[in-house]
Amino acid sequence: MSAEESGLRILGRAWCFGDDISTDALSPGAYAVAPPEVRAAHTLEAVNPRFAAEVRPGDVVVAGQNFGCGSSRETAPEGLKALGVGCVVAASFARLFLRNAVAIGLPALPCADAAAAVADGDDLEIDLEAGLVRNLKSGVTVRGRPLAAPMLDVLRAGGIAPLLRRRARGAGDRA
Amino acid sequence: MGLTMAEKILARASGQTAVVPGQFLTARVDAALLHDIFAVPVFEMLRGSGFSSVWDRARVLVVLDHLVPAPSVAAAEVHRRIREFVREFEMLHFFEAGTGICHQLVAERGLAQPGQLLLGTDSHTTTAGALGIGVTGIGTSEMAYVLATGELWFQVPPTIRVDLAGRLAAGVMWKDAVLELAGQIGSDGAQYQALEFGGPAAADVDIAGRLTIANMAVELGAKFGLFPADGATVRHFRRRNMDVDAFGPDVDARYARTVRLDLEELGPRVALPHAVDHVKPVQAVEGVPIHQAFIGSCTNGRLEDLRVAARILAGHRVHPRTRLLVAPASSQVERDAMSEGLLATLVDAGALLMPAGCGPCFGGHGGVLAAGERCIGTHNRNFPGRMGSPQAEIFLASPATVAASAVRGRITDPRRMLSPSPVWR
Ligand code: SF4
């Protein structure tokens, strides 16, 4: 299956962030039990107060090391997904954020060189399977490390939820 | 070739004799842990997917610890729904508000054993790695999958070995040791890896200290933070009427790297805003005024921690421009601290006593910070917005340093307040 067919190719504008963007920044504890739309509206407000209001569907978050460090809260990738973020590209991800992103079907790509090759607002094209980040503005392409096959399988399925429903129906295993 | 503790745990859980770092596998889970922030979405997803029971209700623990007692109507609704789910799914292990922080309960009540695999909907699930249990955090969707199937995929992590050597000096605690480690290897230094503690001084670390260290393993990015289950661990379980076997790595286990932590040289440490690995000796920030001091959390809310705090606060008052919040990690800790007279000492010093649970640790309620306020706490995270306003500042330190700072109203080296005789660590 090609990347287009599986939905693993993403087009969007870049929003750049630094290292160690925490789950507290992504999904502040104060809104832990607030309705999802309220929670999403506070996504990253401690780092970039404009982000939640101005991000557009398909936009790409580009960040440095250890993105999503901190808590296990799935509301961290969920907030990004709810705002329509198409993909997170980071030099590295905290383990729990990456697991959760995959589990809810939010594409993620570890790529050490993306931050240096991308500026805020650049138009990007991401190929998750090949691990490529194309900067359509500068014409530069950098290569990341695509996720391992079992994680891409979950992403392709749209996350854990459809797999679980399939399992409940006894219609086969998860991958 | 020998196996590390993490490799042994994942090999056993996947029914294999050996595994290698990088390998993907499906592991059978021995126990699962949910708390009040995340239980509702887990049960909703489980039910919504068509499941009406969990894979093994004797192996699932549900704890109300984060928002206790309910501080808002929204939180009360969450608790109500959890209690309903607990009945609907006929959960056997449900812990009401005020019983304690989930990680403390796993350790205190022997809810999993050395060598087993326990997954929790909380990053600090790593805490009970102190007892040689394979414990780590996952998100709510994955937890729904675990509750439905009793299994989950894993990638075997490489292991970093941390050799502890020497003895802690007076006034220095195990919290200082793990903060020092965070400063040295960084908040992503153990990303996708397991930390395994060993070396000549590992056996000297009491269970409370091991829990503090393993708790913060996740602040270094680690999947597991494991201490071998040794004589002290076996005795810990025996006091709970459980017989467990010692459990540790093979002597010829292969490590990605080895880090040595010298305790001899170590003084009190403080993590400065806004990163857990932004660690400095306490001298570097002494005198910084603080508005709030917090003693508690799954990192440092145990009896041993309250003893140290009470020893420093005895005969003193919390500084008039500072408030001190104390939240015991569990009702058992609270009870023990009561009978030892520690709570009376703390309250006499002006501490505000909070219910057993997470307290102000994550900014959900009771003790949130205003913009421009500064807090020093014994907990484990100081990211912007962690305890309320993103414009507040959080310093992390040992119970000794926090207690001393509460008395002076400024960040204070606890060694200045050492009475000549007692030595603690
Ligand atoms: S005490 Fe703090 S770190 Fe521990 S479980 Fe509660 S909120 Fe999380």
Q: What does it look like?
A:
- The complex is a heterodimer of chains A (175) and B (425).
- In chain A, 33% of the residues lie in helices and 18% in strands.
- Chain A is of the alpha/beta class and 175 residues long.
- Chain B is α/β, with parallel strands linked by helices and 425 residues long.
- Chain B has a five-stranded parallel beta sheet, with helices on one face. In chain B, strands 16-15-14-17-18 form a five-stranded parallel beta sheet. A four-stranded parallel beta sheet of chain B has the order 10-9-8-11.
- In chain B, strand 9, helix 7 and strand 10 (224-226) form a beta-alpha-beta unit.
- Chain B starts with a helix and ends in a 17-residue tail after the last helix.
- The relative contact order of chain B is 0.14.
- Chains A and B meet through helix 6 and helix 9 of A and helix 2, helix 3 and helix 5 of B.
- Residues 66, 101, 103, 122, 124, 297-298, 358, 361-362, 379-380 of chain B line the site of iron/sulfur cluster.
